[in-house]
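Proteins fold reproducibly. Next comes a concrete instance:

***
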Amino acid sequence: MKPLQKSTKLANVNYDIRGPVLEKARQMEEEGTSIIKLNIGNVAAFGLLPPDEIVHDMIRNLPSAEAAGYTDSKGLFSARKAVVHYTQQQGIAGVTVDDVYLGNGVSELITLAVNVLLNEGDELLVPSPDYPLYTAVTGLAGGRPVHYRCVEEAGWLPDLDDMRAKITPRTKGIAVINPNNPTGAVYPRETLLGIIELAREHDLVILADEIYDKTLYDGAKHICMASLADDVLFLTFNGLSKNYRSCGYRSGWMVVSGAKKDARDFIEGLNMLASLRLCANTPGQLAIQTALGGYQSIKDLVAPGGRLARQRDMAYELLTAIPGVSVVKPQGALYMFPRLDPALYPIADDQQFAYELLAEEKVLIVQGTGFNHRDTQHFRVVFLPHVDDLEEAIGRIGRFLAGYRKRHA
């Protein structure tokens, strides 16, 4: 039998966060080593569990024929209707049940949408730093990810001039992650309007990833991007994974809004790919209506004194107390993206840096280049561990960096 080879489409897929550092962590765990993980937003691993009412509703519905069978390829009517009601609260105009697609998490829906949007050689504008799924699926679809700059000195806001300069005749869309992963930035109205104007000028689709829209701190306000215009085509992504601590339920949605009349072929493509995978998992869909209509417990977690707010504050204070470490304090999401002063930390290979930190101090982070960032001076941490574990982990990072400074003095 001829050996199987990797698809040529996969050759250009960059998904560095699943590289040798993670493999080393797996090996260490198999050998019995305990690791403090600051690398992934899997909230359940840190004891942040779904609201009880979601769990109880799913359990009650599991024995039913509805839970066991296929649904419409776009999803359960009741769940999609709940999403429609949510879009009305957000101020998105003209959304019907037919405009809502349910998926096995937002990741599946992003992959579906990008595959419909891009032909071979087409381009998608993606933030730098990015959530690497966007870069990966763009390459897998045969397209080319073009990274626009987000400016650390401006609170990690997108550089609209840089975005404009990178638009070409092959550009088909702009990915916007707000609140942002990995930086925690929350974009103001004027930034969102500037991106919309670029999309309007160049007839581009906006992919608005708003999965953290309720995970906000210090009074930050999230503005749903699709609520700001109806003459641009928007694909808005959201789900239960983060706000409702239900990562493993794989329950997300995509809402098509705005200039739908000019996108009939595109929407037909979305319907076709949605049909090909039959449907999203039904038990996860059954959680949506209860989640969106119930008590929003995320507000307690992010309020002053709430668990996530306390952990964010502690992580920020401990990291910025380390010589040569600076952090833009996140306004949303579950992450921060610290910078290491190159005068103190002349890092040539940030993946090797993450590898050595793991090997020496048993702390797992993700290097900044894993998010398609332009330099080697950044890394991402999640602030999901309890305060004691978080204090221990950042203490180990500080100890490692102290040794690094001595070695490179």
Notes: The first strand starts at residue 36 and ends at 37. The radius of gyration is 21 Å. Residues 69 and 144 are 38 Å apart (CA to CA).
